[in-house]
Chromosome partition protein Smc (Metamycoplasma cloacale), 980 residues
Amino acid sequence: MKLIQVEAHGFKSFADKVTLKLDGGVCAIIGPNGSGKSNINDAIRWVLGESSSKALRGDNMQDVIFAGSKTEKEMDFAQVTLTFDNRENPISIPHDFFTISRVIHRGKGENEYYINGEPATKKEIREISMESGISKSSLAIIGQGTISDIAEATPERRREIFEEASGTSMYRARKIEAQKKLERTEIALSELTSVINELERRRNPLVKQAEKAKIYLEKSEQLKEVEISVLVRDTIDYSHRLEQLKEEAIAYETEKDELNSKNKFYDNIIQQKALIIEDLRKQVESLSREHKDISEKITNLEIRSVKEQAQREMIIKGSVQTTTKEQIEALKLSLNELNQKISTYRGFIQEREKTIENLNVKITNRFSLINQCKTNLELEQGKLNKVKSRIDVIREVNDKKATYAKGTKNIVENSTLFKGYKALVSQLIEVEDQYIKAIESILAGAAQHIVVDTSETAVDAINFLKKNNGGKATFIPLSTIKPKFINEQHIVVAQTQRGFLGLASELVKTAREYDVLRKFLLGNILVCDTIESANKLSKLLENRYMVVTLDGDIIRAGGVMTGGQANQQSNVFGMEREIATLEQLVPVLDDNIIKLKEALVKLQQEQDSDSAYSANFVLEKATLQHQLNNCLNEFDDLNQRYNQLSTEKLELEENIDFKSSIAKLISEQSELQVKLKSEELLLKNASIEFQELTMKKNENSILLTRLLEENQSKISERAKAESIIETAKKRLTEQYGMLIETAQQYYNPEIEIDTARKLVSNLKQDIRELGHVNVEAIQELAEVQQRYDTLVEQQQEISTAKATIEEAIEEMDKIIVQKITETVDLVNHEFNEVFRKMFGGGKAEIKYTEPDNLLDSGIDVIAQPPGKAIKNLKLFSGGEKALIAISLLFSILKAKPLPLCILDEVEAALDEANVIRFAEFLQHLKKETQFVVITHRQGTMERVDKLYGATMQKRGVTTFFSVNLADAKRLVDEKGNAIQ
């Protein structure tokens, strides 16, 4: 391997790029002090991995970058590249020629290394230098003023020099690396052994826990299989029963309403009848008292009247001697009285007939009103029943989710499992009647989309549907969606068009938290009244947006149109609106029914009262007619008698005023009697009706109580059924993660339910008796066992690796001992010979400081120039130390030639004769070793193969040029003059 070129740019004084081409042999670099010739040595040393800034004559590594001068700016980087010829004595690089480079940038602490222009590591560079023997710490690079240090070096430092020369430094470095690796391996092995021991302690209890867990899982799986069938059977059976109970509940509500209505009707009538009876009783008592008072008065007057009547009869019959005139007057008076009675009775009869006629008219008219009221009541009751039935049907559809897709239905029914569940789109948007068709056309299937808080909730729900074969659903995460908008200019254009109603998002309402949902679904959609105005607007906006009409016709973005006869069946928004409308009708119809029932009761009461009055008046009329007939007969008899005695005049003593009073009292008594009988009849009828109504009400109450008791039992049964169904579904969801639809796939319809229930109970008891079970123990044991096996395998691998490393170290020790021994023996032989030539006699040798420890023993140098007995090298003069070091260097190069050796003014302390010997030795050694010598000695310059001169044409900037010997001598003379 041979160095054929050195390139440097920005390194120290090399502000301008310098290139030195080397052809092998001995090349000298000369120049005055301060010209920067030694910077070539530093540059080569730096490329080979020198990390000490002091070794490069600086305070820090940034100092190697050109710092600038009065005429030159500082540079931002330093770069040095060495080019090698690898054709002879090659190293392990698969190229005939290769380069190594190092670059550093100002302000950056990191260095960059390259091999053949490709990035490399410092370690790779050092391996090349160690393999070639030209590392920065070997004899291949000897800096200015350091040659004597070799003579004064410690035995350990000399050992390093010999290891570099023998090629064992690479093995030493590898050994050190192997020892570090061995140390790390031993630490890892120790830690691994501790972990394995800990895993063994964990594994033993886990074995028992895992066995217990397996039993638990087997029984749990068996329990799952049986219990799912039991839960599904319970759900099916009780769902059927629940449907029956719901139908019975509807019938119960109808029957209960009827019975309550009857009870209310009876209560109202009974209350009114009670008031009527109380009034009639008071009236009867009052009439009875009046009748009694009049009777007493009549009795008193009749006693007196009888006496007078007897007297008159005696007169009339002649029992008393009277005149004809008196008889005639007596008959006349009797006829007048009878005539007065007849007139009175006829008046009473006419009054009764008129009253009866009026009552009959009222009864007839009221009968029509009652029939109309009953008809209206039946109509209102029918309307109410239809409304309630319609509400029940719609609610049943909603409850059964009949309009929902399978996936949507399953998520809605299990919404409590998802904390982020909000509602369906249709449940969050409020739409006015006139816009329902338009909004339903826009949303279509999106009305069933499920609104959730975040996409994570949607993922959980989707996984739930997948796991349970629950169908598919679409989710809208509020945290993800963004509002959609229409360009404001386009909105202004739309507002100028006839038929434009507004943005769809502005025609509906949502809660504030769902504004983003409203604008996401409807924010970029326009609404018009008709398809014609919609078409015109869409064309005007160049079909950029969807336009929808009130009939639900759609013109989509791009111009595609959908329309026609709208479906009459109400969709989700229509159903909600219909329920709201119907629920508003229920209280109105209830109020109408109550008012009609109250009016009917009042009319019926009035009808009953008038019918009773009419019957009483008919009875009174018959009584009065009978009395009238008696009076007419008596009148005829008296009139006949009167005619016979008309020619006879009787003077009768009479007291007309007295008789008139009796007649008046009798008339009053008769009227009172009629009234009293009428009131008593009304009271009797009212009492009978009261008893009948009370009996009917009691019977109705008994039926209602019995109905309530039966319904209470059914309510309990329904609650039990719902609880069992809910518990079963909850158990399926929470325990087994299944929907009822999924569980039905595992259902065994042939299972004997009682036996299955007993088995479930026994399995649960067995599981309880297991106590605490660590189900994770199975997996944990598997993981621990797997890790244990892996670690044991790793332990074996590391142990094997440890043994391999130890064997490698042992082998490297053998190689180091072998190579160092071989090198020391060869160098020792050459050293004495070279020493004698350089000193003109004397003797020198190399010895081990620890002959029994050749692996690590230091190396000592013993030198005795002619005529001297000094053994301590430190006591020699500077020139003698340099000459001893040069002798050692040449001995090593003869025994173990290096491909390259850089010597920086190593002969500076020698006298001229020794300089010549030095230069001649270089010529002898150049066949095996390439030399780059930095010198100012003429004896050296005269005996080199190539010369480069260093100068600073620009202050602070080094340049190189080829020189001949004459030029070299002139440069040397200039240096001497400068020194003088």
In short: The domain at 404-571 is CATH 3.30.70.1620 (Alpha-Beta Plaits). The first strand starts at residue 2 and ends at 9.
